[in-house]
Design a protein that fits this description.
Enzyme class: transferase
InterPro entries: Met_Synth_C/arc (IPR002629), UROD/MetE-like_sf (IPR038071)
Strand content: 5-15%
Largest sheet: 7 strands, parallel
CATH architecture: Alpha-Beta Barrel
Structural class: alpha/beta
EC number: 2.1.1.14
CATH topology: TIM Barrel
Strand order of the largest sheet: 1-10-9-8-7-6-4
Keywords: Methyltransferase, Transferase
Helix content: 25-40%
Shape: globular
Protein name: Methionine synthase
Number of helices: 14
CATH class: Alpha Beta
Length: 403
């Protein structure tokens, strides 16, 4: 029986300088895989122990096994799949500098490049000003294309993810059932140029079929798998001109259908879906309201939904749960600390946010979380302070709700 508000986070946690350096030297072939895995295991041991000792209930390996190059680790949640999916060909184009203009038409949604996003266009001067504080700077990142059938070639890597987390959990005595591993959702994996399939739907389905092997490896190990699907909300800003809500809902439907097909044989209670509006520190005035997409999101046959609940642009949207029934057997994981501000939330504010959700869907259906991943977006001191406030806030809320 639930007698407390449990806590978790979305996945990415700050990497140490040692691990970032090891990522680069391993990618450059300067150290062996064995040496890299030794450094990686030590880092995972540390981040798991830190979460456990802090009092977080549902923890992970910080996404440390999702390797990316460069000094900033933000892009790993997506870039890691470039070595796990077959059918991709790398190009020389820097994704963050690519200003290719792509235009959609009614009933035919196409995603444009990052520099052509509508939020960036509306605040172009702020984005281009190096002193503005809008965090978009990062190392050059390759931009692959789908040029052949999508296959899964990452079995060795996902096995390593599982092994790393298992060993670290055993060292601190944390249950596997209270741990998770993040994996990219089919729709997010498909957000690359398509030169292999006739339709967007075929590509998304192919990505789902390939990634189903990764999902199964995670749940077979006893962990929960979190499907990272910011495309469900974030992609709205990546469509020019702004589409109709109906067209966008149809676009989302393809992605939910592909996910449901990919996870149909997995234990529902070991699955959760992450939705967000992108973790870059921009104005987000062109975000789609949660209420416009929640009906499609709730079609996902998962055990839980994690979403932004404290960002300045979406904190008010807790109200959608007043009008929408949470599917039976599902939980919500609202973000009650924000990834896009350096201000550390007071524990009482965290508690207030938790109780607001609990009063709508029932405290037994709420797990307190973060808006998005904290790695690469916040200084490590601030990220861990936010997680500490999350735990303390959940303790206050638990006393209020359970006595």
């Amino acid at each position: 029986m639930v007698n407390k508000i449990r806590t978790t986070h979305v996945g990415s946690l700050p990497r140490t300088p040692e691990l970032l350096e090891a990522n680069k030297t391993f990618a450059a072939g300067e150290i062996t895989r064995e040496k890299f895995l030794e450094i990686l295991q030590n880092s995972v041991d540390e981040v798991v122990a830190r979460q456990h000792n802090l009092g977080l209930d549902i923890i992970n390996e910080g996404e440390y096994g999702h390797i990316t190059s460069g000094a900033v680790d933000y892009g790993a949640w997506w870039n890691y799949t470039f070595t796990r999916l077959g059918g991709l060909t790398m190009t020389d184009t820097d994704r963050w500098a690519n200003a290719e203009v792509v235009r959609s038409t009614p009933g035919n949604i196409k995603l444009t490049s990052f520099p052509d996003r509508r939020d960036r266009a509306a605040f172009n001067e702020a984005y281009e000003d190096p002193e503005s504080g809008i965090f978009t700077g990062r190392a050059k990142v390759g931009n692959p294309e789908f040029t052949g059938p999508v296959t899964y070639i990452g079995q060795q890597e996902v096995d390593a993810d599982v092994d790393l987390l298992t060993k670290a959990l055993d060292k601190v005595g944390h249950n596997r059932s209270d741990a998770f591993v993040a994996a990219i959702a089919p729709g997010s994996a498909a957000r690359l140029a398509n030169k292999a399939y006739d339709t967007d739907e075929e590509l998304v389905q192919a990505c789902g079929q390939a990634l189903s092997h990764e999902y199964k490896a995670i749940t077979d190990a006893g962990f929960t798998v979190q499907f990272d699907a910011p495309d469900l909300a974030e992609a709205w800003d990546q469509i020019n001109p702004e589409p109709t809500v109906a067209d966008y809902q149809a676009w989302i439907r393809i992605r939910i259908d592909a996910l449901n097909d990919a996870i149909k044989d997995l234990p529902k209670e070991q699955t959760r879906l992450h939705i967000c509006w992108g973790s870059w520190h921009g104005p987000h005035t062109t975000d789609i309201p949660f209420g416009d997409i929640i009906d499609e999101v709730l079609r996902a046959e998962v055990g839980g939904f994690t979403f932004e609940g404290s960002s300045p642009r979406h904190a008010h949207e807790w109200r959608v749960w007043q009008d929408h029934q949470l599917p039976a057997g599902s939980l919500i994981y609202p973000g009650v600390v924000c990834h896009s501000t350096n201000v550390v939330e007071h524990p009482q504010l965290v508690a207030d946010r938790i109780t607001r959700f609990a009063e709508v869907v029932g405290p037994e259906n709420v797990v307190a979380s973060t808006d998005c991943g904290l790695g690469g977006r916040l200084h490590h001191q601030i990220a861990w302070a936010k997680l500490e406030s999350l735990v303390k806030g959940a303790e206050i809320a638990s006393k209020q709700l359970f006595g």
